[in-house]
Input
Amino acid sequence: MPETIRQSALRQALSWPVSRRSLVVMVVVGTVLNLINQGDALLSGAGIDWPKAVLTYLVPFCVASYGAYTAFGEAAKRRNREVIPTCVDTDPL
Output
């Protein structure tokens, strides 16, 4: 049974190259957001809110992965809509 557009997009979005990029986004954006949200606790030596920290890292990963999923899905839809031009003989003879 052929793969649907959604299945193909999900498979591509969860592939290692895309997941690796999402992990990089997670580390960079998650770190910046954690420093913004919990920087005062880190500097004062107070405890870190671990559930909040985990979610702060998880959200950028999910957003990057969902962005890849929708991009792959839209690209597949565009490919399916493309019409292959036919050769038309313009020679009047």
